[in-house]
């Protein structure tokens, strides 16, 4: 029941043809009918270059209108979009492209193809505008969506150091959108400002909600606090998705002002929010809905209503309507592994049964985070999964950085931990044991070829030995203490 | 995916414990937490009298708060509620109770048990308040809803004259609620006034939306235009479900006034709306959303936005987001049988495979209505199914009335048609061929024992012979003409 439905964009264009789907800063204003026509036309051009049903197509782009058109076009051809983080290095991208069995890679206007020579020799790489110059081929476009079909693959790193491709079905995205609307309502004049990267599920989800809800969006290509504040105030924005660092800068920029009454809320993802920031938002009458989620949950799965924000400081909130949270392997204090369940949770990782098996207990997704539920059922996360570092909303898995550093000749041991940072929330710091008299810049030069800039350690600290416990596990909390003491 | 979810009321009480779920005219104001407690307590009392998982329990009541509590309580025991039209005669009810394998019947405060002696001897009949006096039995209450499980059975008549039990799964009701929210939004301050009978799916659906959305409702036990207008204006009502006759009276009563700006829309079901009435609503700045649906579609499945109402006079609109409409067996003008599909459509009739088979072509439900789609995809219904008469929002199937009249000694032939009526939209009129010199009152006296009052012919017209075509089918349109000529 409900496993098949009309194609979302086609249906929405039929129901709300003249409603604005996307506005941009350059003055574009695209209705749902126009978005449908652009996407269908683009699908026919993609067909001309050979994209066909079942293909896995990489999308490598920063936020831009044509990126959204491309994603819809790929659905019309019944292909799976592999959403690539445009901040990754070529080496990181090549791993994902290979793992995801990608054939074509489509790139945005701000991707400089010269930087991706190896990718170009191994894959059919075309810019969005290259495709735009093609003629249209008559081809069957998808009319019905099977909710069980894969729609996107988005990579996330993990404890193993190898990124894993999270497969989102249409159903995962559908239920994510529906659950969100049951949480915060769905006002007929909503306009959601999107500045989070669309290559992350949180940014992508805004544009899927748009067609499912019939909701207007405002696309922002890059974040800059004062510009975004002006847009929120002048363009009747009602909802904005932010990460902590953005919220901080938006509030700092607001000074005496606040948003119009029509503004509804900030949806805050990607890490916890300091109490001070919540109080500041409150003083400016800005409602902040904190959320907890990950790529595997197709964006938020647990949220904290603004009404509860100051009563439940530090809590992530309660699971969305069709979702559940459970704490497995509780200790005496009720703290255990946070597990979640619901129709927005992925069925598993692409071609990676082992990781899938490890990540699920029955139908419960193991988040790897430690936490507990209070007497009212509110979730508190006390320790992030696998020492996850969240920096400006981007996830950095220490194991991935450690894995890269270990490849350097002369490095004997390494541990990466998160350091508190005023601007980014956290930044990575590496503790390195070595024998080759390496300098910090040697290590960074090597890493720059391997890792996206945001993952590079802010500091390399050379030490003689890493603190390990009896079972030989590195005691990272000791390193964090060392780091704090050193900085005082 | 998404076939299991937390029990709706339990989940809603967890997410929105202090939000008002139901207000009443007598000043009651029940939060979701209270509604959960009342329903769970009532479930434990029902368990005491022997109601158990899998039972079919009749609910015979006019609108009242305890009726809603009872419905939720029945879900906690994993039983199926058989919603009985309280305007039916005992004979009509006994047919449904028997057909639906009912064991218990629970009755509301306005049901006079003396009128149901045969029912009492055949079934365990208890009033809501009888049950309230019981002690609570410790019993397992349902924690998770299986969307594929049956939730309600509601009878609808049809061409055969025998009412058929439409089985609604939890999923049918869920998707109906979700589809409706995608159509008209879900505002955080919505308050839906419910005066349609809860024993019909349109009235029931308001209270299921309430727990799924976390939306406040205002329960009205009986309709009276000036009282309801005062409630709408003074109690911050944002949405009201109406049938045409109610809308007519509400508008007539409004005179110089209109509703506050916070009022969002009237959802109009049960038959088409005269243009004059739409214009009158428009002049009073009241948005009317016309809808098309039936018991089988768990309320609305096609709706006409108010923005299109005057551009597409006479149209029923477009199918809701996950739904589709199709015209089968089209004639040269594109007119054919209206068929609908979607996750809110029933899987079939209880214990009636033949009727189920006849009603579905693949996954398309045959509505029996004739209609066409215009070039923009708007549905126009040109002829109601099986000469259906819609009187004050109640469906009257001529075949059912004809069947009853044929049981009278001396009646040789009969045909029932709808006559236009200023107050009710339509009323039934019977054309009778007889040999026993029966009088109108003889026939009505007999029928009163068999049929609900609203189904009784407003007039009995005795004629010598019914007009039949070559294939011996009664030409009802000729009777309607006869009737019109006669009344001029």
* Residues in β-strands, percent of chain A: 25-35%
CATH topology of the largest domain in chain A: Rossmann fold
Structural class per helix/strand content of chain A? alpha/beta
How many domains, in number, for the residues of chain A? Answer: 2
CATH class of the largest domain in chain A: Alpha Beta
Q: Unreliable segments of chain A (pLDDT under 50, ≥5 consecutive)? A: none
Annotated CATH homologous superfamily of the largest domain in chain A: ANL, N-terminal domain
Find the count of extended strands of chain A (DSSP E, 2+ residues): 27
Largest interface: A-B, 35 and 35 residues
Key phrases:
homodimer, 488 residues, alpha/beta, Rossmann fold, GMP Synthetase, Chain A, domain 3, 2 domains, 14-stranded mixed sheet, six-stranded mixed sheet, 16 helices, globular
